[in-house]
């Protein structure tokens, strides 16, 4: 410790031995919050040295030092010790309000919340009494514009700031800078934010719009589901303020994700959807567009919105009934827009997600999305999270049934996001918190949460009877005036408006709805934005594209992607991989899977195409095969040959992702729906793990185009193959993807050679079609001696949807044709060659969907005399391709021929867990496929 500094300071102070307790109290307050003590004391405590390796010294050691210094002090002067102790108690009181004032805040419009009483907020708890109320005390860091105040005034202002309509939770944040920033903004207005008359009228008219639309829909379409916003009407002024202020601060695009509650209101009163279009949807009318369509409260929308900083493009994401799954989709869309606008900090693009109180606490994808928020691959410069807190989820209102935390928003504390609870019936407090939240996000590039505490005027939907399960709450709601009425009276009492004016504005809004035209003043006709989807509209799978690339070019690129700086020391195993790849690039060695895949990426970035590949081990590849990111063994720096091919090339981003499937796949889906010109890929660690993202696969990838007309070119790389590694490391659940296959919604491929993966990757990007690609990628084939390709296999050719017999068999001697897909082909091939068998031909189906009927028919011309056809697969009979694709197999074989199944028996588990049993099963299915009885 800098003993001299401390002793010198004490020598000039009134503090000495008897006052050591006061110093300890000050120090404890400082440890809780450095801003809770005066600048003078903070400077002293900040000067305390750290121990070795920057570890703080023990508190007991510090206290002992204080005691020693205090005992050595001989003189005492100035304020008495008891007075000093009172002063520190006042500072501790201020700090207590900052920490726990939200627990006594007036947050519930219904007045039903029963928060636990917090002793810390009472004067008695801090040994302060009524006798102290008229005494002047230093306010420390309390940002109210004065250094001293009477205790009664301090107490009143603390109540106003922290226990009014706003309950602020921010003291869990580690950063002192961020806490001080929030304190300055909250405390500076003393709990009474001021608004000009013009803005107050604007807020009122927005509340009139929110309430007016719901009343109109309720009378025009009684009993129809609309998931009314009533009770949370302040969401409309909140969102409009958020968009307007973001535009003032430079935002060009805003992406919004929300579930059902209030969605129709937001569509009409914020994004500017024509009311007549909404009314037509209620009436069951729809455009004659191809596809299934979707219910109205799932639909997205895009528009432009005028702000003082220029027009802002708004995009409301489409969302299924899996409420929170849209959040990472929004983040992915935002990241794509940031990349397109060269906006790495997120200054130009704002993500807004709107949650339900039960869902935000109950659905795990919320945690996953928060966890991603500051990572390299998924950060978006912070997001604004709004919770429409109805205090009831469907029919569950008891907190002990809905969650295990005090607030539904406690999940946000995991990333130290500030949380601003606000009473939705105080619209000025709502707008103030909105300003505060956006400014915080823009200043610190972190997530921030607004908990809009409101109520749900009707049941879960308008046909529900809520009083059956919430009798007390709904007896109160029936008597509760709507926010519009409360705010009108508030402004009328202040002389800001006349109640007759409010009535006229209400009628004007209803008249506007009758006309059916846009009712949002800020709405502007949408201009063409920087992304153009037109080249990808209306194209079939077999549309022609230029896939040709010369062998010379491939060799040139192969040389580039195997080069790295001399001082970049590789791991010995990786160095050996690169030595072999140099031989492959020259044509001196057959190429393996990893080289062909990497070469495909090289051809694309060489053409200026951007690639994004994420996965839990994608840099090197889960199976140690890719090694696109080279780690220096001396200093851990990284080098990517793919990004060092030439100047002005496209860039490839490869990120090892967070340990998540649901949020990550949803993020990549969102990215791909916002950026058609990039190749977006996600790689599962094992294909089995993709089932953690099943909601995304079911609700977005497989059906997004059918339901919402949303194109998406996302590629899923799912390691799949039976290697004796047990039930959880064998199957990517091919059957699920085939079951979901219809309407040419995606392609499902099982490539078996390096050349095939090369062509498949290039086809996915170069073909002017943007639909998902699902790939069953191999494990053992990555290094299989037969799974090799030559440079000529890559040059000037394309992907083969089906591959016929490769051995020199006489077709006339063939008595059985075995069709298969994936790794089992090589097991069949090796066994047939071992047997020197010439009467069984083997056909590979490399694309199972859309089924390549024409290519297979061409192959089958040589086998029209054959009567025995077999489908052979590794997967159990109830899994894999057999049940979902056998109609295609039957259609492919000659009339009168028979088709049989050879593979594992039906099983509840994807695979056995014992290697010996696996080998026995594998040998059996190969034998049965090849043996003609």
TrEMBL record:
Give the SUPFAM superfamilies listed for this entry.
Answer: Thiamin diphosphate-binding fold (THDP-binding)
Under Enzyme Commission nomenclature, its number is 1.2.4.2
Question: Which keywords describe this protein according to UniProt?
Answer: Oxidoreductase, Thiamine pyrophosphate
Q: What class of enzyme is it?
A: oxidoreductase
Q: Which domain of life is it from?
A: Bacteria
Q: Which GO terms describe its cellular component?
A: cytosol; oxoglutarate dehydrogenase complex
- Give an example GO molecular function: thiamine pyrophosphate binding
Write down the InterPro entries for this protein, in alphabetical order. 2-oxogl_dehyd_N, 2oxoglutarate_DH_E1, DH_E1, KGD_C_sf, ODO-1/KGD_C, THDP-binding, Transketolase-like_Pyr-bd
Residue ranges annotated as transmembrane are none
**GO process annotations (BP):** tricarboxylic acid cycle
Q: Does the keyword Oxidoreductase apply?
A: yes
Whether Oxidoreductase counts among this entry's keywords is yes
Where the record annotates domain Transketolase-like pyrimidine-binding, the positions are 591-784
Q: Which Pfam families match?
A: 2-oxogl_dehyd_N (PF16078), E1_dh (PF00676), OxoGdeHyase_C (PF16870), Transket_pyr (PF02779)
Q: Which cofactor does it need?
A: thiamine diphosphate
Recorded family membership? Belongs to the alpha-ketoglutarate dehydrogenase family.
Listed NCBIfam families: 2oxo_dh_E1, PRK09404.1, PRK12270.1
Biological function: E1 component of the 2-oxoglutarate dehydrogenase (OGDH) complex which catalyzes the decarboxylation of 2-oxoglutarate, the first step in the conversion of 2-oxoglutarate to succinyl-CoA and CO(2).
The record's listing under PANTHER family reads: 2-OXOADIPATE DEHYDROGENASE COMPLEX COMPONENT E1, 2-OXOGLUTARATE DEHYDROGENASE
The name this protein goes by in its record: 2-oxoglutarate dehydrogenase E1 component
The scientific name of the source species is: Idiomarina seosinensis
